[in-house]
Amino acid sequence: MAAMTSISLTIADKRYPSVGGAPAREIFHDFRLDVAAHEFVVLLGASGLGKTTLLNIVAGLDTAFRGDVNFGSPSPRIAYAFQSPRLLPWRTVLENVVLPLPSGPAAREGGLAMLHEVGLADLADAYPERLSLGQQRRVALARAFVIGPDVLLMDEPFVSLDEASATRLRLLLRSLLLKRAATVLFVTHDGNEAAALASRIVLLEGAPARVALDVVDDLTPQDRASTARVEAFRRRVGLSVAD
Ligand SMILES: Nc1ncnc2c1ncn2[C@@H]1O[C@H](COP(=O)(O)OP(=O)(O)OP(=O)(O)O)[C@@H](O)[C@H]1O
C-alpha cells in the first residue's frame, strides 16, 4: 500500500545574497503552498521567479530558507527530474536508470522493466551520447520512476523538444502515474503544457513570488489530447503566460 503523501510548504523568507553588483533578492516572503496527496500541480510563471528554488526547497537540496516542508507521511521517497536530463556519460542507459537503487540483480530487473515501460528496452546497454534529447528525457523519466516515488518533482522535464515528442512524453508521464500514483510538482513556462497535464495549476507572479492564480484543471483525457480544447481551457481560466 503506497503512502499517501501530501506537501505542505511554508516559506517565511527565502532570499539570495547580492552577487557581483546585483542587489540581494527576496524570492519568497510569507509564501504557502499545500498540495494534496496524488495531486498533479503544475507551477507556472515567468523566468526567474523562483520556481526551481521552490523545487529545491521541497527536495531538501536547499535548506537556506526560513520555513518548513511537511509531507504528512514519514520518509517519503522523492524523485527529482531536472531541467536537463543529467545522465552520467560514462554509464550505460540501464546503469543510469538504476543509479538511485541499491545495486544487485533486483535493481537490474527493475531498471529493465522501467526501460521497457518508457520504450527504451533496446537501448539498455547504449551510452547516453548515442541518444536523442527525447530519448535522454525518457531515461530521466525512467530513473525518476524506478524508485516508485511518493513525491515527484519535475523542472521543465520536456523543454527543448519538438511539439510531437513533448506530447508523447506527456502522455507517457500520465500513463506512468496511472500505474503508480505520486504527488507531483511540475514546473513549466508553457501554459498549454500546464493545461494538458495538471490536475491543478498554480500561477506565480511578482517578486517576492505570490500565487496569482490557483485553478482546478478538470479536463478529460479526450480534452487533453486536443490542442484546441487545451487552449480554450487556458483562455477560460485566464492563463495567458508568455514564454
Ligand atoms: N544561488 C543563487 N544565488 C543568487 N541568485 C540566485 C541563485 N539561484 C537563483 N538565483 C536567482 O533567483 C531567482 C530565482 O531563480 P530560480 O531558478 O528559482 O527561478 P525560476 O523561476 O526557476 O526561473 P527559470 O524558469 O528561468 O528556471 C533568479 O533571479 C535567479 O537568478
TrEMBL record:
InterPro entries: AAA+_ATPase, ABC_transporter-like_ATP-bd, ABC_transporter-like_CS, ABC_transporter_ATP-bind, P-loop_NTPase. The keyword ATP-binding applies. Residues 9-231 form the ABC transporter domain. It holds the Pfam family ABC_tran. The keyword Transport applies. Keywords: ATP-binding, Nucleotide-binding, Transport. It comes from the Bacteria. One of its GO terms (molecular function) is ATP binding. Belongs to the ABC transporter superfamily. This is ATP-binding cassette domain-containing protein.
